[in-house]
Amino acid sequence: PPSVSPPPPPSCARVLGAMPELPEVEAMRGLMERHAVGRTIRKVFARESGGGPRDGKFDDKVIGEGVKEPAFVDALLGRRVVAAKRLGKQLWLELGGEG
Questions:
Q1: What is the dihedral of CA 33, 38, 42, 43, to 10 degrees?
Q2: Catalytic residue numbers?
């Protein structure tokens, strides 16, 4: 008899390509909780990599207008991830330590 495989987890492409449903967002929050909470940020890559016109550039339009790449990187390096949070379809990481 043919084997039945479990459904695949939501892919980043699917989540980023269309508005995710709440179970998908919660699955991503759980993934971040399992793999990021308790860890320290040692490297930051803050450049576009989607192949568009800003590919390879720091995207201050997304991060925040007026924020410069060195300041953004410095604010994150060495910080510890203390929580993965969700409100509706919004996700964020809470960080501890100085940055």
A1: 10
A2: 20-21, 89
